[in-house]
Amino acid sequence: MNRMMKCTMMLVIAVLAVSAVFAEGQAEVAYPERDITCIIPFGQGGGTDVWARKVMGSMAKDLKVSITTTNVTGGSAGSIGISQVWNSPHDGYVLAATSETPLTIPVTTPITQTSKDWDYFIAGGSPGLLCVNSVTAAKLGIDTLDKLAAYGNKASLKIAGTTGGLWFALASLVSEKNYGNWPLTWVSYAGSGPAILATVGGIDADLVVASAGEVKDYVRAGQLIPIAHMSPDGYTFKTDAKSIDVPAITKVIPGIAKYLPLQQWLGFKVPSDTPADVKARLTSAFKVAMADPDMVKFASDQIAVIYNKSGVEAKTMAQKSESNLCWILFDLGKTTYSPAERGIAKP
Questions:
Q1: What is the residue extent of each domain of the chain?
Q2: H or E segment at 7?
Q3: Running DSSP on this structure, what letter comes out for residue 248?
Q4: Which residue among 242, 253, 264, 335 is least enclosed by CB atoms within 10 Å?
Q5: pTM score, two decimals?
Q6: Do 196 and 209 meet the contact criterion of CB atoms below 8 Å apart?
Q7: Can you give the pLDDT at residue 29?
Q8: Which H or E run contains 199?
Q9: CATH dotted code for 128-259
Q10: pLDDT tens for residues 241-253?
């Protein structure tokens, strides 16, 4: 073997050795190796926003990276923010904060992804309440559910919320002639937070449908009056001074009982084809966050129940909600596309 051949062989061996070391180093890189972004598809102050910031803050401690939360609003049911996550690399570095509301995206927009295309991490949820602005209530004498039911000019009343989701479905059932026949005017906002503020200010809405956790401060301040629990059961709202007994919406609109209960839930999701090891690491961090005593206190302060669901359990819950919500809206003529053509089974 001449000298040139020996030099060539040594060079090849050296290159192979360096490549092997590099490959081994690459294999040892564990997720996450850089900071993460969580897109919140609704405005600030609503349940999705508040819960996402809390959950991400807690998970960041276990993941040992920063998680930046960014509100990206717009589109039906938060479709612009959700699409931004879907169109990003499916590598676990861009997460989607969510509630049950984006489940209606495939029947209200051209976007075809359904719950089968996402994996869910469901943190918790709070009871749904129909509230009236206190000034409106005093002026029109509709500070209870019975008085609202008897009010003869419901068409003049505006109800605020986010189009496409749980509260929209419930408000639509209340307005539907086959159920409540309350011709309320729906006013849409990019999240429960802006909808609540519009109602509290009494500028654009008289009523709002949102979770107890979202309206708690305004109820306790006397700015909003809860007049109905959007459920077959009554509910007691506790304030520092007193407890408010809130009747079930079915007390005056029994026809919607067959659709209830419809649960609010909040958390985040990732595309289903995200690498398994990434989803496993997110799951472990999520479980740590849910067990944090500070998270338990947060849920209590938000008048919420911790669900702590991930994997198959969370996906099953999401698919059940998707089926209920999409078919309710379809039956009421509130969708652009049929749930059947999107492969969403009937409840």
A1: 36-125+264-342, 128-259
A2: helix 3-27
A3: B
A4: 242
A5: 0.84
A6: no
A7: 62
A8: helix 192-201
A9: 3.40.190.10
A10: 789 999 999 999 9
